[in-house]
Amino acid sequence: MKFISWNIDSLNATLVGDSARALLSQKVLQMIIEHDPDVIALQETKLPCDGPTKKHWEILREKFPDYEIVWNSSVEPARKGYAGTMFLYKNDLKPAVTFPAIGAPGTMDAEGRIITLEFADFFLTQVYTPNAGEELNRLADRQIWDIKYADYLAELDKKKPVVAAGDFNVAHQEIDLAHPESNHRSAGFTDEERQGFTNLLAKGFTDTFRHLHGDVPGRYTWWSQRIKTSKINNSGWRIDYWLVSNRIADKVIKSEMFDSGPRQDHTPILLEIAL
Question: d(Cα 237, Cα 39) in Å, to the nearest integer?
Answer without folding.
Answer: 24
